[in-house]
Specification:
about 350 residues; alpha/beta; Rossmann fold; 6-phosphogluconate dehydrogenase C-terminal fold; Alpha-Beta Plaits; 3 domains; 7-stranded mixed sheet; 4-stranded antiparallel sheet; globular; ACT_dom; Preph/Arog_dehydrog; prephenate dehydrogenase (NAD+) activity; Prephenate dehydrogenase; NAD
């Protein structure tokens, strides 16, 4: 691949442009908003100048509702040897393209499983896709050239290709992406009218659960409008679980010992099913999540503190597998939770204490 055209210069499109440009591909940028394309170009994602002829690959990075029309237009205009889209829903746009009578041999629906709560070109990075799954949904008539160019794009972006059926993809993202967004928003919405005294008690748990609730509503309306059925199916199952959880908790209020014990068993079953589901989420390097030990360190809010703690961990010969920060309310401090292999936890704790760090059990 020597040339590419990115149509739509938001977070994903600009990140694609940055990744390709960094690897020597001549990238041309197009957007319905010239200012957005200009911003992406200024960031180094490519040039606003139109290509002189057909490029190797056109990457359509527009909202799902506009994918079919944009792809059909690109194919009919002969803008590229092959054309892909990167929308988060796959079966709907393909059906629309078929209805439009577009020649789909040179088209391939794809979806990089990467993103941020922030949107727009200023949030883009060249390494956004590194190590992330990138779903490819070839159809029966997809040309080999289109598939090969898509695979080359995934490789240049340093992502991991995953081939799936379009409908299976939409059901999968409904479960692992779209429903979690709504669940996060539902929990966060309960905070809107909560007493200030309650909100001030928010800890890391509620921060983790509500992180993605900060996402752009407009973007998610586009996504959910394109995949409503599979998301509704998952939510219906969650609603059944919620109803059973409510009944179990009500039983815990009962004066009847049998009802209370039944409630305990039901709540325990829910929590254990949650444990089992969580254990299936891929961990580091795609492997099953490891049981790490947490070394919690009190850190003050001063420049260089995080760098110093990681340097001290490295000096102790300990590899930090993961990290999270829990901020203290109304204090210029927080707890840095360093996740390490169980055998390394005592070594790290002792080394950090020697270097003056305050360790919390």
């Amino acid at each position: 691949m020597r040339t590419a055209l990115v149509i739509g210069t938001g977070l994903i499109g600009t990140s694609v442009g940055l990744a390709l440009a960094a690897r020597g591909v001549a990238v041309h940028l197009s957007d319905h908003d010239p200012g957005t394309a200009r911003t992406a170009a200024a960031l180094g994602a490519g040039t606003e100048e139109p290509p002189e002829g057909p490029v190797d690959l056109a990457v359509v990075a527009v909202p799902p509702a506009h994918v079919a029309a944009t792809v059909a237009g690109a194919i009919r205009a002969g803008l590229a040897r092959a054309c892909i889209d990167v929308a988060s829903v796959k079966s709907g746009p393909r059906r629309e393209l078929e209805a439009l009578g577009a020649d789909l041999g040179s088209y391939l629906g794809t979806h990089p499983m990467a993103g941020k709560e922030r949107s727009g070109p200023l949030a883009a990075t060249a390494d956004l896709f590194e190590g992330r799954p990138w779903v490819l949904t070839p159809g029966k008539g997809t040309d080999t050239e289109a598939l090969n160019l898509a695979l080359e794009l995934v490789s240049l972006c340093r992502a991991v290709p995953v081939v799936m059926d379009a409908e299976a993809h939409d059901r999968a993202v409904a479960l692992v992406s779209h429903t979690p967004q709504l669940m996060s928003s539902l929990v966060a919405a309960r905070l809107r009218g909560a007493e200030e005294s309650a909100v001030r008690l928010c800890g890391q748990g509620v921060r983790d659960v509500t992180r993605i609730a900060a996402s752009d509503p407009g973007m998610w309306i586009d996504i959910l409008t394109a995949n409503p059925g599979p998301v509704a199916d998952v939510l219906a199952d969650v609603a059944v679980d919620l109803g059973e959880a409510v009944q179990a908790l009500r039983a815990l209020e009962s004066c009847d010992d049998d009802k209370r014990q039944g409630g305990v068993r039901a709540v325990e079953d829910l929590l254990r099913r949650g444990n089992a589901g969580r254990s299936r989420v891929p961990g580091k390097h795609g492997a099953a999540p490891a049981a790490y030990e947490i070394v919690a360190v009190l850190v003050t809010d001063r420049p260089g503190e995080l760098a110093r703690i990681f340097a001290d961990a490295g000096a102790a010969g300990v590899n930090v597998e993961d990290v999270s920060i829990e901020h203290a309310t109304d204090q210029q401090a927080g707890l840095v939770q360093l996740m390490v292999e169980p055998s390394a936890a005592p070594v790290l704790s002792a080394a950090l204490r020697e270097r003056g760090w305050s360790i919390r059990q």
